[in-house]
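Possible regression after last week's pipeline update?

I re-ran a chain I had predicted before the update to compare outputs. Posting the input and the new output here so someone can diff against the archived version. Not blocking, just want to make sure nothing changed silently.
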Amino acid sequence: MTGYGKSVANYQGKKIHVEIKSLNSKALDLSTRIAPLYREKEMWIRQRIAKELERGKVDFSLWIEKNEATLATPINRAVVTNYIQQIQSICQELSIEDPEEHLIPTVLRLPDAMTLAEADELSEEEWGVVTVAIDEAISQLVAFRKQEGESLAKTFNEKVDNIEALLHSIEPYETARVEKIRERIITNLQKISEVEYDKNRLEQEMIYYIEKLDISEEKQRLANHLNYFRETMRDGHGQGKKLGFIAQEMGREINTTGSKSNLAEMQNIVVKMKDELEQIKEQVLNVM
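New output (post-update):
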């Protein structure tokens, strides 16, 4: 679910920047930084992002870059003119020399001589320009996510194929494992010469013991989970959580196989399967 998108629009001397980025998250966690002029549209922006992105920790920024001419504070012509007229009138009445040299700097420091720009009002035309920029940034992020998704699908297929191949590689060791268990038990019994045992009962106990170590069911369930994982990927959008659940079930079968594998070669294979599965679990958080 990681992604990034950026767009820039121009409107009447203003450069409007839109930036959006996302990281992994189980739900939609949206943070916004919006220029004051556009804050009245925050709910619209949030709904728009939620509709397109659904999940992820998302940071959205919308700000205005103004040019120097726009940033300059305007002079209140009417107020300055009135101040000058009043000062000149007072000087004449009191027979004071007109302070021509210092008049303008003095007047500009008087209240309201420098008028701050009036608060802008958001017009429909400007908002139309901004919405296009927002949609473009979101589209870039979605495209980024799709590209990443294609790469992830390739990775998942490789990892699932690797687990399946490792699962098949266990089979040759299963028959050998049973024979080794049988030989080890009989050999140990033969070492205790003074102990007599019922061979039929021994055979029954060995069958019971070997059945407890049988991994046929675990292998079958794991194979089913691998196929289900592939099918779920082919279902497309919105399968991230489901893939995570399937990966958990795969882990249970691999762990059970490992606990029943009392042969070093089989345990080594199980460790390799766990490694492949952990890589799947790390990346499945990136899936919508």
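Follow-up from reviewer: compared with the archived run. The longest strand covers residues 56-66. Marking as no regression found.
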